[in-house]
Every structure is written in structure tokens, then in C-alpha cells.
Design goal:
This is FAD-binding protein. This protein is of the alpha+beta class. It is built from 16 helices and 19 strands. The chain has four domains: 85 residues, Uridine Diphospho-n-acetylenolpyruvylglucosamine Reductase, domain 2, CATH 3.30.43; 112 residues, Uridine Diphospho-n-acetylenolpyruvylglucosamine Reductase, domain 3; 110 residues, Alpha-Beta Plaits, CATH 3.30.70; 96 residues, Alpha-Beta Plaits, CATH 3.30.70.2740. Bound molecules: flavin-adenine dinucleotide.
Length: 447
């Protein structure tokens, strides 16, 4: 393709991958497989990104932004002839303790922000379970959540300002003033513009944290306990859920010492600067768990708490040992409906030929039902039907089909059912206003 020669001369040969074995690696994210890109661009600074967009305008070849490809909705996977823009070389990070801000390029790995801020007793609260792999660019584009987001808020709540490149190749700055451009760009899944820098708010670390695990004989009872704890007025720092199948998968893989006979587990942290209040809140959660029939185990020390959290972080890896493929749903339902929804999904799983497991940030009403299967034996369409049934359960209970993983490619087909036509049409107009020729991440999000 002659335009690729121009791309190499515009950007420099060391910033473009053209060999097929290199390009093939960029057709995947953590869940989906797309087309092999025509080329992979590896920009190092904002000017490179602007040059890429200008090249895209001239050549007509779309751009697909990509962070670490840990995404779970196929967002960074090309679906048309495109060039992938991999931001992994843009890794500058500077902490300004006075302003309590981190200034970062999009390729910075999420956990690195808190690691760098720790020198000033500060941290960056958004903590996707993938924080050791995912990048800030991906987090911003998906408005990533995580265990701490129940109390602390999601990625978008920590954005002070953004620098981004628009569809004309111009470098712009988005702030919260007047029309909230930050609010539009965060969560836009790479479809409105390319984020090249972010100024992120940091917070002082809470002085005390306490942890408990509670085990239940019934999935619905665990969900009920979560709702009760919150209704009692506690806002735990983290409130996570795993069903019995997840517990057993983790135990088989990592021998952490989890009970194999439990139907569900809640994992809870309370935190703050006043130890008395932190302890009191943990006791209120423990009481809600016991009332719902749970067996409560308080972590005796930080080591034990770390071991319990290791169990939660290990779920995805452990599930991969059961079947090589999974369809990862990301529904959110009102907390008052959690028990009913968790039970309904459990029933769908019992009637299905494939294991259907559930875990998630239950404090936020955010559940990840995962269908485990082997794509070499199972037609994708059949699994898709079950995923659709799960999405419908969420919608019937007043919920939504994505809390944090985005719509991307894999949930695009459900969006028309999830949103009314006037809303879809407004979203299409926003897309056209930002990207009239659909050069940014085509084939994603909007049906
Ligand atoms: C084990 C595991 C656990 C996970 N846990 C969580 C969790 O707790 N919470 C959560 O929210 N997610 C979670 N995820 C999903 C995933 O890690 C997040 O969606 C993350 O934000 C993606 O970051 P990434 O750098 O990998 O982005 P990618 O997957 O590469 O891309 C994601 C999206 O961002 C766009 N994008 C990337 N960079 C830019 C940029 N600079 N400008 C514009 N658009 C851009 C891409 O086009 C794509 O649409 C998990 C994934 C795994 C595998």
C-alpha cells in the first residue's frame, strides 16, 4: 500500500511495524480477535500522534488506539483495514505533590501512578484489577472502575484535564469548564479522539484498613448481605463478590485456603484515618453478613488480608484453566435487585452446557458473569445467545449492559436493545461532530 511508505517517512521507520509477524500480535485484546492491522504505529510524543491523524486524513486509513490490550470488549481490536496506534512508548510520568496531581502520558501502566505517588504519601484511587497491565489511556477511554471505586469513584472522577488530538490532527486541551469535554472523552472508547496526556488527581492514603471475608451457602444471600451492609450506612472501601465456582477455580489453581463448599464469598475492606470508625464499619458489615447467613472471617493482619485479595485478583487467571475462552459480561443492576439478578444468572448457568460463573464489584451493583467455553468446539453464536440472555436479565431489572469494560465490539449488538433510539441518535450526532469521517476506531460502540 503506497500510503504506508508515507506513514514511515512521516513518523520515522523505528516507530512503525510493518512485518506480518509483528502486526498479527495487535489483532487481539484480552477477549476478542479482529483483523491483522495494515501497520502498527508506536508514537513517542504528542506531535507523532498529530502527524498520524494528519496521515490518516490524507490516506483515508482509520486509526485504532491501543493501550495494553487488556480490554474485555474488543475495543482496541481492528475490524476494518486500519493502523493500530499503540501508546506503550508514551510513558512519561511526573508527580506534583503540591498540586496533588500526576501528569502522565497514556502509555503509563495504571499501578505506576500510585507507586510514584507513594513517595509523597499520595495515591491514585482508580484500581482496575488489571492495574499491573492496563494503561492510563485504556482506563480513560473505558472510564475504568475497580474494587476501590465503590467508595472512591471511577477513573473519570480523577481527571483534572486532558490533552488530546482531534480528527483534524490538532492538539487540544479538555477541561471541565463550560461544556464538559473531559466528560465526553472519558469513556468514549477511542472513538472521538486520541488522548495524549492526562492530569490526574491524587489523594492522601488512608491510615488504616481492615479486611473481612464472608462465606455463604447461597449466591443470593451473599448479594443480600452486600445490599444490607450498604443500607446500614456503611461505605466500605471495597466490596467484592465471587461465586463458589470462582472460589474453587482459584483454590484449584493457587491453593490459597478458600473453602471449597461455599456457594459465594464477599470480600470487604473498610478504611479511613480514624481506626475506631474503620473497626466499627467492619463490624456493621460483619453483622449484615451474619444476618444473611454468612460465616465471617476477619483477616488477622495485613498478610492475611493480602492473601484474601490475592484470591480475588487471581480469578481471571484461574478461570482460564477451566476453558481457554470466555465471554465476559459486565452488567450493572440496582443494588436492591442484586440478590434476584445473581440468582437468575445462576439459574441460566445451571441450564447451560457451559460453566457460567459470577464475580464482580458488587458494591457498585457491577457483576461479571463469565461464560467459559472452548471456541474450537462451540460455535460462537450459541455462547452469544447466552450472553444476550444475561444482558436481558440486567435490562429487565433496570440495569445497564456495561459498567466498566465498555461496549467496544462485543456488546455493540446489544446496544440497540439497551438504549432508546433518541439516545442512540444523539450519540451518533456526537460521533459525527467529533469524527465526521469515522477515522477513529470504526466499527465500535454504536450499532
Ligand atoms: C484480569 C483482568 C481484570 C480486569 N479488571 C478490570 C477492572 O477491575 N475494572 C475495569 O474497569 N476493567 C478491568 N479490566 C479490563 C481492562 O483492563 C480495562 O478496560 C482497561 O481500562 C483497559 O486498558 P488497556 O490499556 O489495556 O486498554 P486497551 O484494551 O488497549 O484499550 C481499551 C480501549 O481504550 C482505547 N484507547 C487506548 N488508549 C487510548 C488513547 N490513548 N486514546 C484514546 N483511546 C484509547 C482503545 O481504542 C480501546 O477502545 C480487566 C481486564 C483483565 C484482563
Amino acid at each position: 500500500m503506497p500510503q504506508l511508505g508515507r506513514l514511515v517517512s512521516d513518523l520515522g521507520p523505528d516507530k512503525v511495524l510493518l512485518d506480518r509477524p509483528d502486526r498479527v500480535l495487535y489483532r487481539y485484546d484480552a477477549i476478542a480477535e479482529g483483523e491483522v492491522p495494515l501497520a502498527v504505529a508506536l508514537p513517542e510524543r504528542t506531535e507523532d500522534v498529530a502527524a498520524l491523524v494528519r496521515w490518516s486524513r490524507a490516506s483515508g486509513v482509520p486509526l485504532v488506539p491501543r493501550g495494553a490490550a487488556s480490554g474485555l470488549s474488543g475495543g482496541s481490536v481492528p475490524v476494518t483495514e486500519s493502523v493500530v496506534v499503540a501508546f506503550t512508548r508514551m510513558r512519561e510520568l511526573r508527580i506534583d505533590p503540591g498540586a496533588r496531581l500526576a501528569e502522565a502520558q497514556p502509555g503509563v501502566v495504571t499501578v505506576e501512578v500510585s507507586e510514584a505517588a507513594a513517595a509523597y504519601d499520595l495515591y491514585y484511587p482508580p484500581d482496575p484489577a488489571s492495574h499491573k497491565q492496563s494503561t492510563l489511556g485504556g482506563n480513560l477511554a473505558e472510564n475504568a472502575g475497580g474494587p476501590q471505586c465503590f467508595k472512591k469513584g471511577v477513573t473519570g472522577d480523577y481527571v483534572h484535564a486532558l490533552e488530546w488530538v482531534d480528527a483534524e490532527g490538532k492538539v487540544r486541551r479538555a477541561t471541565r469548564e463550560a461544556h464538559d469535554l473531559v466528560g465526553l472523552l472519558v469513556g468514549s472508547e477511542g472513538t472521538l479522539g486520541l488522548i495524549t496526556r492526562a492530569w490526574l488527581r491524587l489523594e492522601p492514603r488512608p491510615k488504616h484498613t481492615r479486611t473481612l471475608a464472608a462465606y455463604f451457602g447461597d449466591v443470593g444471600a451473599a448479594a443480600q448481605a452486600a445490599s444490607r451492609a450498604i443500607a446500614a450506612g456503611v461505605v466500605p472501601a471495597k466490596l467484592e463478590f465471587m461465586d463458589g465456582a470462582c472460589l474453587r477455580a482459584v483454590e484449584d489453581a493457587f491453593r490459597i485456603g478458600l473453602p471449597r463448599d461455599a456457594a459465594a464469598m464477599l470480600l470487604v475492606d473498610t478504611d479511613g484515618d480514624d481506626l475506631e470508625i474503620v473497626e466499627e464499619e467492619l463490624e456493621l458489615v460483619a453483622a449484615a453478613c451474619r444476618e444473611a447467613g454468612g460465616r465471617v472471617q476477619r483477616a488477622g493482619d495485613a498478610q492475611e488480608a493480602g492473601r484474601l485479595w490475592q484470591a480475588r485478583r487471581a480469578v481471571s487467571a484461574a478461570l482460564g484453566r477451566i476453558h481457554p475462552h470466555r465471554m465476559n459480561e459486565d452488567i450493572v443492576v440496582p443494588r436492591s435487585k442484586l440478590a434476584e439478578v445473581v440468582r437468575r444468572i445462576h439459574e441460566l448457568g445451571e441450564a447451560s452446557p457451559w460453566p457460567l460463573v459470577q464475580f464482580g464489584h458488587i458494591g457498585d451493583g457491577n457483576l461479571h458473569p463469565n461464560i467459559l467455553y472452548d471456541a474450537r468446539e462451540t460455535p460462537h453464536e450459541e455462547v452469544h445467545e447466552l450472553a444476550h440472555a444475561i444482558a436481558r436479565v440486567a435490562l429487565e431489572h433496570g440495569g445497564v449492559i456495561s459498567g466498566e469494560h465498555g461496549i467496544g465490539l462485543t456488546k455493540r449488538a446489544f446496544l440497540a436493545e439497551a438504549l432508546p433510539e433518541p439516545t442512540l441518535s444523539a450519540l451518533r450526532r456526537v460521533k459525527r461532530a467529533f469524527d465526521p469521517e469515522s477515522r477513529f476506531n470504526p466499527g465500535k460502540v454504536l450499532p
